[in-house]
Every structure is written in C-alpha cells, then in structure tokens.
Amino acid sequence: MRYFAAIPASCLVFALLTASAEPVPKPGVVARSWELEFEYETPQPMTIQLPEWKEKRTFWYMLYTVTNRSSADRIFVPEFCLYTDTGEVLRGGERIPVGVFNTIKKRHNNPLLTDMAFITGKILQGTDNAKDGVAIWRDFDHKARGFDVFVAGLSGERAKIKLPKPITVTVTDENGKEKKVTKTEMILSKTLDLWYFLPGEASARNRNTPKLREKKWVMR
Q1: Rounded to an integer, what distance in angstroms lies between the CA atom of residue 89 and that of residue 148?
Q2: How far is CA 182 from the centre of its chain?
C-alpha cells in the first residue's frame, strides 16, 4: 500500500480527495488542453562533499528534457514532489545548495543543463527550443521501499473541486511573506505520476537502480 502524509499546500490533495463526497476528477484520455513533451531519466542518488561541509551528503536527482510542441509559446512552471511509501514528502529544489547542481552539471558534461529557478518561464515552440533541466531532492527515509515523483506544470488541464471541509494552509504572497489562508475549494492540475520501486537491501540502495512500476496522469 502506498501512503501519503500531510504535506505543504502546493503538494496537498490526496487526503482531501479521498475524504470528499464528490467524484474525484480524472484527466482526459485525450489531452483537453495544451501539453508539453516530457522526457526523463530514472532518478538516481549522488553522494558528494562540498568544501563547506564536514562530511559527505546524499542527494537524489532526475534529469529531464521538456519540449513545447503545442500551438503556442507556454509558461513552464515545474514542480517536482517526491513521496516515499513511508510518508515522507520532499519538494524538488528545496534546501539544495547551488554546489549540488553544479556538481551534477559537471558530472553529465551538459552546459545547457538548467536548475529549477532558471528553467521556469516561457518555453518557445519547437525542438530547437527544448530545455534540459534537473530536479534535485535531499536524501529520504532509508526504510522506504518505493516512491512517487509527481511532475506538475506540463499541462494546461485544470479542474475545480469543493473541499469536504475548509482547511487552513500557509502560502507565500507576492512580497515573499508567508500567511495563512482558509480554502473551501481547490484547483487541481493534470500531473504526471511516476511510481518507482527500490530493489535490494536498504544498505545497498545507492548502488541499485529504481524500477519504474507505473506511469500515469492524475489530477492533483
């Protein structure tokens, strides 16, 4: 069984949907809106030591390429959330030192590789305007036997649902300040769900390649 813990507002949905009396919306089998092409590599761990650290640290990252083959230029605002089957939630790019990104860029010898902050923005049409990016997470629970990676920002398909009860969440306003707001409804976005299994013993996790169990679109 896969378990999803309570999470930040931008990653919150599943617990609310399961509690709702309304039918859970599903993404269209045929795209109902614009959609970006997303090619990706299997997430992998990397253990490094930067000069300012006293010891080595492990991170996970996923390389990807996003291409706009739609009928117009689009604004690409990616979000990568990693959920473990032990209930841990990690947001891509959160508390990641720039040295980690620079190490990945050097390792793969890709001068066009872009981090999440700089890949956000307008993506022009066509293969020549494709962008190479990387999602990076801190290391997660060693007891985890699998995880999901949810990739948002690839589709313009949306759905509005009414929450079973009002919730209070913390959001960041236009001035960068956090504040609490009460929500009675939520806008869901078509999101790619990649479910991976971690083979082998936990002690050998960094040497084994995660196996993709399922790939699907969900509304979250």
Answers
A1: 10
A2: 24
Distance CA 188, CA 160 (A): 6
Residue whose tokens read 């920002």? 153
DSSP state for residue 114 in the 8-state scheme: B
CA dihedral 174, 219, 82, 181 (to 10 degrees): 30
Among all chains, which residue has been given the structure tokens 């709702």? 20
Contact 65, 131 (CB under 8 A): yes
pLDDT tens column, 156-168: 999 888 888 888 8
Distance CA 196, CA 209 (A): 10
Distance CA 79, CA 58 (A): 21
In this predicted model, what pLDDT tens digit does every residue of 13-46 receive, in sequence order? 554 554 454 566 788 767 779 999 999 999 999 9
